[in-house]
Amino acid sequence: MGMSVTIDGSASVTINSGAVLGITSGTAVASTSGTSIDFTSIPSWVKRITVMFNGVSTNGTSQPLIRLGVSGTPETTGYTSMASMVTTTNNVTRGATATTGFPFAYQGSAISEYSGSVTLSSFGSNIWTCSGSIVNIPETFNGTVSGVKSLAGVLNMIRITTVNGTDAFDAGSINILYEG
Amino acid sequence: MTHRIVVNVETGVTSIVEYTAEEQAIHDAAVAAQAAEAQALAEAQALAEAQALAEAQAAQSQGTAP
């Protein structure tokens, strides 16, 4: 005789390893100020993180990127990644590699507004891969990012910032989903 | 003061964390360096444009000389 189990969607289910069953949503945050947005205290059992951008903008021209961190500190080197973009203007394509993070746009611009998502996946042995697609409506281009990063330890935070670290966010919102 | 936004995913608490004095000094120095670099770039570009214009005018005057 079969048995069905119904889980009340209002509560989470924790399995023996401490992982929460299913997908957990973080807290959406307005990216309207500050030089970086950090999501900290990410549980050690997490194996996939989806970073979601909703009309995110900065006030400068520095390339925006995602960094992964260990023990609350983002790592700033050792990324193998590339961002590319295609525009509606003559179907131009461009690309650029990056080593200081996972860039979610080919280049930065004060008029850019980024929307879309980037998925970070645990490969094992503290290695994380990155894959994402972001649209930038004001500049009519769509960008992709992919890459890999080997961390010095267990990931517990991510930082969204810019290459120069001084440009400030001035519009939009960011949230994450995470799952084990 | 410059700040960063921190979201603790365990607690759901969002905080604005002001830069420490040391972080602010690094930030201010970086901004000043970026401004100096932009200024130098603009000056070099203006100089190159002026030189190109002068060369074009010289070539034109040589070409039209009797």
Would you give an account of this structure?
The complex is a heterodimer of chains A (180) and B (66). Helices cover 0% and strands 53% of the residues of chain A. In chain A, strands 1, 2, 4, 7, 8, 10, 11, 12 and 14 form a nine-stranded antiparallel beta sheet that branches. Chain A has 180 residues and is mainly beta. Chain B is α+β, with helices and mostly antiparallel strands. Chain B is 67% helix and 17% strand. The chains are: A mainly beta (180), B alpha+beta (66). Chains A and B meet through strand 3 and strand 14 of A and strand 1 and helix 1 of B. Strand 3 of chain A pairs parallel with strand 1 of chain B, so a sheet runs across the interface.
Keywords:
heterodimer, A: 180 residues, mainly beta, 14 strands, B: 66 residues, alpha+beta, 2 strands, rod-shaped
